[in-house]
Design goal:
By secondary structure, the protein is of the alpha/beta class. It has 4 helices and 3 strands, in the order H-E-H-E-H-E-H.
């Protein structure tokens, strides 16, 4: 790699971080309700990603409730085993990104509990 290419790459990466957005947060609790339809790969990835973003912003302690699989008509119709993958994504994401006090609720399995915790 030439010196000019290296300098360009460094300057380009700094310009990307200058344009990065932050999570708009001032005070209060954070609640996430995710996946309103059949689970698939984007849901499995988005769950730990949302937790990682909160951790990166130092907001993981403000997340009080995280509901997932929050559709009432069930899962595993298009992708067998998707409910297990969603549970793994949520609970492993919680372990990896330090959300120890957050209540993680599989809403399709406990809809009344999810509603109570969200309100």
């Amino acid at each position: 790699m030439t010196f000019k290419t290296l300098i360009f790459c460094i300057l380009f990466s700094f310009s990307l971080t200058a344009l990065a957005q932050t999570i708009p947060y001032t005070k209060g609790r954070i609640v996430i309700s995710s996946d309103g339809n059949e689970h698939d790969e984007d849901d499995w990835a988005a769950t730990p990603m949302s937790l990682a973003l909160l951790k990166a912003a130092g907001l993981e302690s403000q997340l009080t409730v995280y509901t997932f699989s929050d559709h009432t008509w069930g899962s595993n119709k298009e992708k067998p085993g998707a409910d297990a993958q969603m549970r793994e994504s949520a609970f492993m994401g919680a372990k990896w990104f330090g959300t120890k006090k957050t209540k993680f609720i599989e809403a399709v399995a406990a809809p009344n509990y999810a509603i109570i915790e969200l309100t």
